[in-house]
C-alpha cells in the first residue's frame, strides 16, 4: 500500500530540525522536492540572478531580503531534505515546473491592472509598508488570509504561480509512484501548495504536515524586526 506525506514549508525560515525529524520518522523510499533541475543546480551552486528580466531580479532580491530577516537562505529546506534523503538512501525527484517558464507565462498573461498593482505593492513593500499581518502569519504558519487576498487581487498570477503548479506537481507525484516503484514518498513543498496538491491527490489520503506543525516544533522564537538596508 502506497503512502504519501506532504510537508509544507516556508522558503525563508530555518525549519531544518523539525523537517528532518518528520522525514526520518516517515522513512520514505523517495523524496520529491518543489524544484526543477535549473533551480536545483542554482541552489547547489549558490548562484545569484545577475542577468534576465527585471521581474526575475526583483523576485530574487526580495527573497534574499526575506532570508536575511528570518535567518534562512532561500531553498535551505530543500538542501536539508536532500541531505536527509541521502542519509536514508531515498531516491530524489524534482516535481515543479521550470521556474523561468512559469514566471514568463505569468508575465505574458498578466492583465494591465494586475501589472500596475504589482508595481505599486512592490514599491510599498520595499519602503517598509505593507500589511503587518504577514508577520503574524509567518509566526503561525497560517497564510489563509494572504492567499485569499492574493486570489482576489491577482487572479491571473494565482492561476499561473499556484493553481497550475499544484496540478503539475500532483501529476508528477502520481507518475513517480507508477514509475519508481516506491511505496512511501514525502513531498516537500511550500505551504501555499499543500491544499491544492492534497485536494488533487485526495484518493491517496496523504498525511499532511503543516508549516504550523513545523513551527510549533521548532522550539524557538523568530525575530520579526525588519530593517531596510541599502543595497
Helix/strand layout:
Layout: E1 3-9, H1 16-26, E2 30-33, H2 37-45, H3 54-70, H4 76-87, E3 91-94, H5 99-108, H6 112-126, H7 133-140, H8 144-153, H9 155-179, E4 184-190, H10 191-200, E5 207-209, H11 211-218
Parallel strand pairs: 1-4, 1-5, 2-3, 2-4
Helix pairs in contact: 1-4, 5-9, 8-9, 9-10
Your description of this structure?
- It is a single chain.
- The chain is an alpha/beta fold and 231 residues long.
- The protein has one domain.
- It has 11 helices and 5 strands; from the N terminus they run βαβαααβαααααβαβα.
- The protein has helices at residues 16-26, 37-45, 54-70, 76-87, 99-108, 112-126, 133-140, 144-153, 155-179, 191-200, 211-218, and strands at 3-9, 30-33, 91-94, 184-190, 207-209.
- Strands 3-2-4-1-5 form a 5-stranded parallel beta sheet, with helices on both faces.
- Helix 5 (99-108) runs antiparallel to helix 9 (155-179) and helix 9 packs across helix 10.
- It starts with a strand and ends in a 13-residue tail after the last helix.
Number of strands: 5
Order of helices and strands: EHEHHHEHHHHHEHEH
Overall 3D form: globular
The Rg value, from CA coordinates, equals 18 Å
**Biggest sheet, strands in spatial order?**
3-2-4-1-5
The total tally of domains equals 1
Give a quick set of tags describing it.
disordered C terminus, alpha/beta, single chain, 11 helices, five-stranded parallel sheet, 58% helix, 231 residues
